[in-house]
Amino acid sequence: MSGFDPKTLRRALGDFATGVCVVTAEPSPGTRIGMTVNSFSSVSLDPPLVLFCVANTANGLEGWRSAGHYAVNVLADNQIHISNRFARSSTDKWEGFAADPGVTGAPLISGAIAHFECTPEHQYPGGDHTIFVGRVVAFDRPRPNAEPLVFHQGRYRELTHQHDIAVPADALWLLGW
């Protein structure tokens, strides 16, 4: 341990606002897994790679390790109930919940802003988490103008668009691309 108080560090890390996603997979026929994450990030455009992290204590870790495909579903601000459903550790997350299969067979959540369907590329140890890097093989943006679900300081937040702030064209470091 680095000597940091874990709760204080977690609060400081919570100062970084993130989007909220639900990652879904069907590691074996008829067995679906899903979890809410805010550890989603783009990695590369060429090849198209994204990542998410799973706690090493998560019940579904072995399912994530064995999944041949998975989908990252970027949630909209009206999908808090879905985020909460998949944030639970219970085994009945899918009870009464419908999802459509994507081109890879991974479950896609209706109403999401975007879906990224991936095949596993790498898995890396990351302290108390495993980092999953996936190659994007399909994606869509069914609701590109919807407001995203945002998480900041341990709470869901709403974006307010009183005015948009322009990003300088030469600020590629800021845009991440």
UniProtKB/TrEMBL annotation:
Keywords: Monooxygenase, Oxidoreductase
Molecular-function GO terms, alphabetical: FMN binding; monooxygenase activity; riboflavin reductase (NADPH) activity
Flavin reductase like domain ranges (all copies): 13-158
Pfam families: Flavin_Reduct
Superkingdom of the organism of origin: Bacteria
This protein's record includes keyword Transferase: no
SUPFAM superfamilies: FMN-binding split barrel (SSF50475)
Presence of keyword Oxidoreductase: yes
PANTHER family hit by this protein: FLAVIN REDUCTASE (PTHR30466), FLAVIN-DEPENDENT MONOOXYGENASE, REDUCTASE SUBUNIT HSAB (PTHR30466:SF11)
Similarity remark: Belongs to the non-flavoprotein flavin reductase family.
Descriptive protein name: Nitrilotriacetate monooxygenase
